[in-house]
Amino acid sequence: MLMFRTVLKTGFVLAFMAMGTLAFAQQNAAVPDAKMPAGATVSTTQPGVAATTAPADNVMAAADAKSTKVTLRELSPWSMFLSADIIVKAVMIGLAFASLVTWTIFIAKMGELTLVQRGLRSALGKIKDSRSLAEAQFALGSSGTILSSLLAAAMREARLSAGISSDAGVKERAASSFAEIVRAEARRIRLGMGVLATIGATSPFVGLFGTVWGIMNSFIGISKSQTTNLAVVAPGIAEALLATAFGLVAAIPAVIIYNHFSRLTKGYLELVSRSSGAAGRLLSRDLDRTHVSSVGRVNSRAAE
Fold this sequence. Notes:
With 304 residues, the chain is mainly α. It is 81% helix and 0% strand.
């Protein structure tokens, strides 16, 4: 343990000494020699003799530094978009449009689902004490919910089946009409969710395509310029990676919104099923009431 502490202290001391030596060397290198003329260099071939040479190397170094400064630019998202290849630009514009479509569907479907759920719950509350189809329709009034369509289908089937003694046939035909109405409502309420699923599934791959295309162009530029300087290579690669960022920005909200609407749609379709059951029960009561009244009339005629 004592040996470990000694070695550790010795290492810290050596590290501080090395850092101090490096800082001192950098400070001396940064301060120019006042005795030497500008552009002159010292030849170390003969000790103690300073020879002035042509400043060609310094001029070339200054030119390289100047060219490097010219190629440097601000890597903001907007500047990277403007500097990107036409294919990468098209990919990013398409993904931005897909993101706009996603949020448009979100706003529209959120308002629609909220209104239809609220209206259907209210309609179910109004008819819970109704004893017949006619009474339920009177309680709903001019409501435009799916429950009104189900009640209308039940009354139409009861009217068309007048004179038929088979109640099972009437209920079966009414149930078939209810199923068609429910399926149509399910298709209507899911409108737009397929677009969300497509955007969420394909946007990352579209962004990846833009990234691959941009990196390919960057490597072609590297081969043409014959340099691996990071200042020259980084902008092209950053522009390519921006396409992947656009893809994720479009895909992540689309997937989250799709899952949210799937839950809301499932809850609404459960209310629709409850409405179908309520309409079927009212139709069954009307049929039973009709048979009871028919039997009563027959008995009264027989008594007479």
